[in-house]
Design goal:
By secondary structure, the protein is mostly beta strands. The protein has four helices and 21 strands.
């Protein structure tokens, strides 16, 4: 099942022979074919349909959730750690991206003037469906998951090196594109992530290549902080990261989920 957060575009006629389009309030929806069916919420119960629906052409896809936090996993592919001359971590290496960095499909990634090198990092991300805390190593993660989506962990690489920390480099507004949908039935064992820039493939990775599995990351994180419904856990990026330039179009594709597409532009500070 594909879940989305959508904003219906309503047709209004302020004057004869004139048309304008106004946006309605965002809502959650199930996507089936070319139709978005509104539901009463994605996290609990049967996701009851309200009876309202729209053609996909008449809705805007937003970031599929509004998380309280985005927890990211660093250096989870051996080749990515090597390309940045970093050691392979012995336990999950986590950091946070602020909720204010989240944008949805087709929204622009804005490159700040403070950085001369901003990189893309395509990733598979898990979305929590229930409150999750202090899981043991043998606890199943599945009951707490809503599904999976695409994420771009945009990073100001020069600032990351200068600071020796991740917060500023990864925390700028627009630095966490997310979406376009949440797939609740993803075959994670066979999932792949691919990043293209202007149609040219730059990254490709499989979940089987991860140092720490998605379940292991979530269990580990849950013993540090409570994960709330809608929170996002990113699982690391494969090798091949590289710089973004104004005018680029970056796409992160997760097999079975879809393609997260974002244009890139300079930010006017």
């Amino acid at each position: 099942m594909k879940l989305a957060r959508v904003q219906p575009i309503l047709l209004a006629s302020p004057a004869p022979h004139q048309e304008s389009r106004a946006a309605a309030a965002p809502c959650f929806a199930i996507l089936e074919g070319a139709t978005a069916w509104e539901i009463d919420g994605p996290f609990e119960g049967q996701r009851k349909r309200t009876g309202r629906s729209w053609p996909l052409a008449e809705v805007r896809l937003l970031a599929p959730v509004v998380p309280t936090k985005v927890v990211c996993q660093g250096r989870n592919y051996v080749e990515h750690a090597a390309e940045l001359n970093n050691p392979v971590p012995k336990e999950p290496l986590i950091f946070l991206k602020p909720p204010s960095s989240v944008i949805g499909p087709d929204e622009p990634i804005l490159l700040p003037q403070a950085s001369k090198r901003v990189d893309f990092e395509g990733e598979i991300a898990a979305v929590m469906g229930r409150t999750c805390s202090r899981l043991a190593d043998d606890d199943s993660v599945a009951p707490y998951l809503l599904g999976y989506t695409c994420l771009n962990d945009v990073t100001a690489r020069d600032l990351q090196k200068a600071d020796g920390r991740f917060t500023r480099a990864k925390g700028f507004d627009t630095f966490c594109p997310l979406g376009p949908v949440i797939e609740t039935d993803l075959d994670l064992a066979r999932a792949t992530v691919e990043t293209t820039i202007n149609g040219e493939r730059r990254q490709f990775g499989r979940t089987s290549e991860m140092i720490f599995s998605v379940d292991a990351i979530i269990r580990w994180v849950s013993r540090i902080m409570t994960l709330e419904p809608g929170d996002v856990v990113a699982t690391g990026t494969p090798a091949g990261v590289g710089p973004l330039q104004p005018g680029d179009v970056v796409e992160v594709a997760v097999s079975g989920v879809g393609i997260l597409r974002n244009p890139v532009a300079a930010r006017e500070d």
